[in-house]
Amino acid sequence: QVQLVESGGGLVQAGGSLRLSCAASGNIVSISHMGWYRRTPGKERVLVAEITDRGAPRYDDFVKGRFTISRDSAKNTVFLQMNSLEAEDTAVYYCYSLVNNGVYTSDYWGQGTQVTVSS
Prior knowledge:
The chain contains no helices and eleven strands. By secondary structure, it is mostly beta strands. It starts with a strand and ends with a strand.
């Protein structure tokens, strides 16, 4: 089994910054993709950013230039630095990892962390 533990959410004023972290642990041989999704009430979960095991990032157009994703592969941890936050960034943020346990590959999700941006 694999567990993902997120931290770093909270309340911030518009224009401020937050840094999310997510650490994966458990039966892990390798992790190819790590990333972040977010969901607002009444809407589906959407991709915010993801990063491959080679460090190649991908961003949703709405966060490009404001958010930066990075990872520490040695610690199975992914980070999301969020700058110039806007009220529209308010959501529950979920991290995920695409994990290979030596037998098969599966995606795992964190419990979600609330980010609230006040305008």
